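Hi team, as promised in this morning's meeting, here are the two structures we talked about. I've kept the exact order from the run log so nobody has to guess. The first one is mostly here for context; it's the second one we should focus on when we meet again. Sequence first, then the predicted structure tokens.
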Amino acid sequence: MIGRLRGRILAKQPPSLLLDVNGVGYEIEAPMSTFYVLPAGNEEVVLHTHLSVREDAHVLYGFAREADRTLFRALLKVSGVGGKMALGVLSGMTAEEFNQAVQAGDIAALTRLPGVGKKTAERLVVEMRDKLDKLGIGMSSQPGAVVAAETAPTGADQDAVSALIALGYKPPEASRMVSKVFEDGMDTEEIIRAALKGSVK
């Protein structure tokens, strides 16, 4: 089991990143909550990881905070929730916000997350309410501020749309979310953050 990796980021294309660990490149799927706190430059980062072994693939997931990995693992135990949906949950809400929504039974907030329908939201509330207290989720601090790039890459809005589609949003919905928040000068991660924040209001 790979539980933790320390290395330098070679490429970022949300929700995927490539991490160089002593010359070995690890392809990692990560929620947007992790992308928001990654350094802009070639600095060393530490990611808490979860390895998912399926018949057709081995998928490595990475998280900036241990609380996010803990929540991810708890979500995978809920019937009908897979890795993609769990990443979508952690991209649309912090662990603390998810805890608040579950404890309050806020089905409306949960159904605004990608891939989460009413039945799944109800199942999340029922199955996660007691687990979250036992796991201590909701007690830790919010992630740090985003390190913004000095100049926005070309096509940042299109990259943001692609990332939202990869997280489970339908293409027209992803385009609409991005067009609502996009302003000149924003980088991809800023656009995604603003779009996801707007979708859960």
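And here is the second protein, the one for discussion:
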Amino acid sequence: MSQRVVLASSNKGKVKEFSELLADQSILVVPQSDFGIPDADETGLSFVENAILKARNAAAHTGLPAIADDSGLEVDYLNGAPGIYSARYAGEHGGSDANNRKLLEALDGVDEAQRTARFQCLLVFLRHADDPTPLICQGTWEGRILNAPQGEAGFGYDPLFYVPGEGCSAAELAAERKNSMSHRGQALQCLLAKLRQVG
């Protein structure tokens, strides 16, 4: 029987990605939107703080174990921005298109060599809302920022994120390939290994 775990996200792209990544495990991912849970206030100053805040919020509202990630894009030329503000880079409800436009404007005229960037994912698993020792995993995916969007798949900054080893953007990768390489995929593999250890 599958263990139900609440995913502390209502982002459809993330929910789909986590469901695909956990399909082979005996874990049934239920998005927090199914419970009508209000989003946690992301008041942390780091990815890990925000992930823990989100997981505790979801676990407290549902009584279920919770998985939360806080992910973002760090651009070297911008001193790590947009970082923890990646989802709301262009404003609270800017959306992916507005975020991507703002990023392209910030890097307008910047040399290819200076457009290095990486996606970071901090993933947290809480057994219950008061869990004092959350499992914490990190995944990092190196690349650089393109001059214009490429590809229709993925979400967020994927169309602007060039993956050197693949010769294309993250939005041009097949879902299975992306999941095997991405920051979220790496963090999740780490988490699955830790869950097997604590069993």
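Starting points for discussion:
The two ends are 15 Å apart (CA to CA).
The chain has a mean pLDDT of 91.
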